[in-house]
Amino acid sequence: EKGTYPHYMLKEIDEQPFVIRNIITKYKDDNENIKLDENVRQAVLGADRIYIIAAGTSYHAGLVGKELIEKIAGIPVETHIASEFLYNMPLLSQKPLFIFISQSGETADSRGVLVNVKKLGHSTLTITNVPGSTLSREADYTLHTYAGPEIAVASTKAYTAQMAVLAIMAVDAARASGMEMNFDPLQELGIVANAMEIFTEQKDVLEQIARDYLSVSRNCFFIGRAADYHVCMEGALKLKEISYIQAEGFAGGELKHGTIALIEEGTPVIGLATQEKVHLNLRGNMKEVVARGANPCMISMEGFQEDDDNIVIPKVHDYLTPLVSVLPLQLISYYAALHRGCDVDKPRNLAKSVTVE
Ligand code: F6R
Q1: Where, by residue number, is the active site (predicted)?
Q2: What is the DSSP secondary-structure string of 34-86?
Q3: H-helix or E-strand spanning residue 298
Q4: Pairing with 260, which of 91, 124, 141, 304 sits 20 to 30 Å away (CA)?
Q5: Is 231 strand, coil or helix?
Q6: Ligand 1 contact, 56 CB (< 6 A)
Q7: Atom of ligand 1 nearest to the CA of 158
Q8: How many CB atoms lie within 10 A of CB 214?
Q9: pLDDT tens-digit profile of 303-325?
C-alpha cells in the first residue's frame, strides 16, 4: 500500500535506507560475519569468469557489480544485456558462472539466456527480489535482494538492493579465498543507509533542481566517469522513462568525441563526481560543456566538493557511492515527471515486468 504517499515511486525511493538495513540483517550471522549460502560461495569461487546477464536498470546494477567483483574478489566479470547475449553470445571461459540480475525474476530476455546456458551445463545464480520467480526457480542458486514488493514501473529500491547484495557476495568470495580485506560491507552499508537519508529527508532541494533544470527542457545529459558513468546511465534511464525527456548517460571523456555537438544554450548537464581518481577530470569535462552554453548541475561527494556544487553526497566508501549518488537522480526524475504532469507510477508504453522477448 502506498499509504500517505502520492506515488509508489516516491515511497519506494524513501524505503531505500530501510531496505539496505534489512539486507545487512539478512546477510549477517550471529558473529557479525557475512551469512551466505555455502553453495553460492563455492559457485563464485569455482568460476574462472563471471557473466552477469540483465536488462534495463538491473543491467546498470550489473555494470556496477562487475567493478565490485573484479576489484574486491579479483574474478574477471563481463556484464551483458540479456537480449544481446541471447543471439550474439561471446566466447565463454572454461568455467563460467552466470549471474542473472532481475528484480521481477520474470524477464524473458534473461530467461532465454538462462535456458541456453543451462543446456550448455553452466552454473547459474539469480539475484532477484522475487524468490519464487521463474529465474529463481530455474537457476541453480538464488540470492534474495529483500527490497519488498516494487510496484512503480520505474525501478529504484531494487537497483540499490541488487548492488548491496553484489558487494556482500564479492567480499564473501574474497574472504573465502583468503584475501586480505579491510572493506567490511555490512558496516559500510550501514553508513550508506544513513547517507541515503540525507536525500529522503531533504527532497525540496531536488524538487527545486527539477524545476530549474527540467521543467521545459527537451533533453538532458548525465556525465560521469568510472562508477559514476554507470550511475549516469541509470539516472538517464529513470528520467527518460517517467518524464519522457530525451536523456543520455555518458562517459565524461567521451562526450567531446561527437555528442558534445548536441549541447546548446541552456542544455541541462548533470555531472556526477564521487570518484577520487577521476572527479577532477569530470570537472574538466563539465567546463567543456559549460563553454558551449550548457546549464550545469554538479553532484559531488564530501571531500571532493567545490563551493558552487549543487549537491554534495555524504562520504561513503568508494565502492558504494552508486548506492547513494543514484538517490538524487531518482528524486530529480520523480519531480521532473511530476512537474510535467506525467503519470509517474505508470509511464506510457511500459510494463513492470517484460515477459516477452
Ligand atoms: C527501469 C526498469 C526496467 C527493468 C528491466 C529489467 O526502471 O524497471 O529497465 O529494470 O525491465 O527488469 P527485471 O529487473 O525485473 O529483470
Answers
A1: 352
A2: B---HHHHHHHHT-SEEEEEE-HHHHHHHHHHHHHHHHHH---EEEEEHHHHH
A3: strand 295-301
A4: 304
A5: helix
A6: yes
A7: 14
A8: 25
A9: 999 999 999 999 999 999 999 99
